[in-house]
Write a structure and sequence with these properties.
This protein is an alpha/beta fold. It is built from ten helices and ten strands. The protein folds into two domains: 1-90 and 172-178 and 204-257, Rossmann fold (3-Layer(aba) Sandwich), CATH 3.40.50; 94-169, no CATH class. Helices cover 38% and strands 23% of the residues. The strands form two sheets. The chain has a six-stranded mixed sheet, with helices on both faces.
């Protein structure tokens, strides 16, 4: 592998969905081992950006690059060029924490965490059980292997989903609104876990969130997507003090006159 390459790089990415131009030249370099938080209003393309990173979407124009330590012989690869089998290999390097956890209701917590291991490895049952126990312990759920999702709280479901996301020892974890639906205390548990996994596992993390308390706590860097491109890229303290009124409206939750216009006629 060549030194100095970011683990993920988006170069001038454009994407149109129907009549809507969602991304208008997005550029972003993500360094290994850092946590980058992506903020922005609903519908601006945050999830679309994540889908480009793992090859679920291809850009209309521009490039997406991935530089792995554990796949493709350490080479920097262009994600849109990968075939189906290569995309499977790519996605094995990523963990994904879905917004609503997306656990299988018919499986126990242990079976949920072990699912990617059964699907993508040749590990024996005892080896899978050992790794499942280790991942659940890492997220503070030691001994929860036999619990079913219906028996778990919202915060516990998130932690099981996070244990599943790290089951294959990914290089990158993608978090889609990880604190949605949780009270402030349970949300802070998830924030602490995000920080812990970065510290102990050295993972690169991308967090999409509207929760600014979470963003400030977990981020090494915050980027804001607006009108198809990133309008801010700074540390949490710099984002707090940004002179850009668009950034300030979002982080303080103040609606603009344009936002309020539809209400004036009611």
């Amino acid at each position: 592998m060549q030194d100095g390459h970011p683990i993920i790089e988006l170069c001038d990415v454009h994407k149109q969905l129907g009549s809507l131009q969602v991304l208008r030249g997005v550029g972003l370099k993500l360094q290994r081992g850092q946590t980058t938080v992506v903020i922005g209003e609903s519908g601006v393309g945050k999830s679309v950006t994540l889908k480009h990173i793992i090859g679920l979407m291809k850009p209309d124009r521009g490039d997406v690059w991935f530089c792995s330590e554990g796949a493709f012989e350490g080479q920097r690869v262009r994600v849109p060029d990968l075939g189906p089998f290569q995309l499977v290999e790519l996605r094995k390097r990523f963990g994904f924490l879905f917004q609503m956890s997306a656990l299988f209701d018919s499986m126990t917590a242990g079976e949920n965490v072990g699912f990617p291991l059964r699907e993508h490895t040749k590990l024996k049952r005892a080896e899978i059980d050992e790794r499942v126990a280790r991942k659940l312990s890492l997220v503070g759920l030691d001994g929860f292997q036999d619990e079913r999702p219906a028996e778990l709280s919202g915060g516990q479901k998130k932690r099981v989903a996070l244990a599943r996301a790290i089951a294959l020892d990914p290089e990158v974890i993608l978090y889609d609104e990880p604190t949605t639906g949780l009270d402030p205390v349970r949300a802070d548990v998830i924030n602490e876990l995000i920080r812990r996994l970065q510290s102990e596992l050295g993972v690169t993390s991308i967090v999409v969130t509207h929760d600014m308390a979470s963003a400030y706590k977990v981020a090494d860097r915050i980027v804001m997507l607006h009108d198809g491109h990133f309008i801010a890229d700074a540390s949490p303290d710099e984002i707090r003090n940004s002179p850009d009124p668009r950034v300030q409206r979002f982080i303080t939750g103040h609606a603009s006159e344009e936002d309020l216009a539809p209400l004036k006629g009611s």
